[in-house]
Amino acid sequence: MNTMTEAKRVAQQGQEGLPARPLTILVAALGGEGGGVLAEWLVDAATASGFPVQSTSIPGVAQRTGATTYYVEIYPATADRLGGRTPVLALTPSPGNVDLMVASEFVEAGRAMQAGYVSPERTTLVASTHRVYTVAEKAAMGDGRYDTERLRKAAETLARRAILLDMADLARQSDTVINAVMFGAMAGSGVLPLAREACESAIRKQGKGTEASLRGFAAGYAHAAGTAPPAPAPDGSAGAARRSSACARPSRRRRIA
Q1: pLDDT reported for residue 101
Q2: Is the pTM of this model over 0.70?
Q3: How far apart are CA 193 and CA 196, in angstroms?
Q4: 23-29, strands of its sheet edge to edge
Q5: For position 248, what pLDDT does the model report?
């Protein structure tokens, strides 16, 4: 049987008005951050929107020597457009073929870049800039912390678009888990073929911590979409000096009898 070349296949799909490939999403999250729930939200929102979707996960190590990764492919065409055909979706990501890379911590974004999952031709990188120190950083005799400024420069260079924000802080402000903020930032990036309402409905479907999760989602969405209010200006030096003085501990001197 003759096989159709890739170029002909893509051309035919273009003529039919169908996407040439699925949207590929890779999520890296640490233990306890709700990465599995985030993947479920994505699948539920895509399914409710009528899109074929597939999700797989690769376990990491919860003691901060690696993240658990979740890979999701969404084919952005509804069943009525597919005419009974079913797209073939991959189980694992491949370097250079990830459309949306999401990392819940900054060094995890660095791992993804090092592995080649972030490319300037294709990838939108959504990453939290806060740090959870690795075992290697903590075990170093001196200051073993990774240079976050180098990570920031690498993200801005290697990604087609880099959306960097402190998602842990937004989660604290919203009194929720970071996965809700991550989901909001993904939706706000404009890469997902999902309406905001579909994403919020997926959160409500879970039925646990709904209001807090929706607050976190809204915060992440606003920051990624660029609609978040500007941060308040820092206080003047006099106010800062007063706070510093008030918080300073009184010096203790040992009495000599």
Answers
A1: 98
A2: yes
A3: 10
A4: 53-58, 68-74, 23-29, 100-103, 124-128, 161-165
A5: 37
